[in-house]
């Protein structure tokens, strides 16, 4: 892809496809079970579903992604807890098919019908956060987003290469981050499918700790400071 025109090129690719469904797939993920596509399609075939995501495990078979959580680390973060599959089934709500607020474009299945209803990607997002914007527009249009743990992938490369834009200190994504925050504002602060009593700065699906308030303030401040760095400074760094 042309790094400054990713969303435009993706729109062109999807427009040229003839199938009923489109799967966005980062090659850093590899299928972990034979039924992964069936598990995604059994949800995506329904008209009320906007997009579906598998879960992702690391090479130790620990959970590293099931969806995206709005408001995590003051912005957006992964729903994960690095628990093994057996412990995840006991100690968290990750091992259920569930509605979520956002899905990563690294592994996202969407029907062409849903895609066309919202006219594809917003091309003002040049390289980053087009997936977040896509999910929020799908939900605004009345669609549901689903995470299905019975469709599984294994992550084969480092987090930095896959989820780097979720780090507030990643400067290359600042311009697109400004666009996302300007466009969606307070909708990015609260996740409708994540308990307000659960941790947003550490392990998922556990109660907030005593220092949660301070850490949440710190991450929000970090996002605020970095999103206001002048564009010329960003150009020099990148």
TrEMBL record:
UniProt cross-references to Gene3D superfamilies, sorted A to Z: Spore Coat Polysaccharide Biosynthesis Protein SpsA, Chain A
UniProtKB keywords: Glycosyltransferase, Transferase
UniProt keyword annotation of Glycosyltransferase present: yes
Tagged with keyword Ubl conjugation: no
GO molecular function: glycosyltransferase activity
Superkingdom of origin organism: Bacteria
Family under the similarity heading: Belongs to the glycosyltransferase 2 family.
Name used for this protein in its record: Uncharacterized protein
Lineage: Bacteria, Pseudomonadati, Spirochaetota, Spirochaetia, Leptospirales
């Amino acid at each position: 892809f042309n790094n400054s025109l990713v969303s435009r090129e993706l729109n062109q690719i999807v427009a040229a496809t003839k199938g009923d469904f489109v799967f966005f797939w980062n090659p850093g993920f590899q299928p972990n079970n034979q039924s992964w596509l069936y598990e995604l399609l059994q949800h995506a075939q329904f008209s009320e579903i906007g997009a579906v995501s598998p879960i992702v495990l690391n090479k130790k078979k620990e959970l590293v992604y099931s969806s995206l959580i709005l408001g995590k680390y003051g912005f957006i973060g992964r729903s994960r807890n690095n628990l093994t599959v057996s412990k995840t089934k006991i100690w968290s709500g990750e091992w259920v098919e569930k509605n979520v607020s956002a899905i990563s474009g690294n592994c996202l299945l969407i029907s062409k019908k849903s895609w066309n209803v919202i006219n594809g990607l917003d091309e003002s997002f040049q390289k980053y956060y087009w997936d977040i914007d896509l999910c929020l527009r799908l939900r605004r249009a009345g669609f549901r987003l689903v995470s299905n743990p019975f469709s599984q992938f294994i992550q084969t490369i480092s987090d930095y290469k896959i989820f780097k834009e979720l780090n507030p200190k990643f400067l290359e994504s600042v311009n697109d981050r400004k666009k996302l925050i300007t466009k969606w504002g307070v909708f990015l602060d609260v996740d409708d499918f994540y308990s307000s009593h659960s941790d947003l700065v550490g392990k998922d699906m556990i109660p907030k700790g005593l220092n949660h308030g301070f850490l949440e303030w710190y991450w929000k401040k970090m996002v605020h400071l970095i999103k206001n760095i002048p564009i010329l400074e960003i150009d020099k760094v990148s």
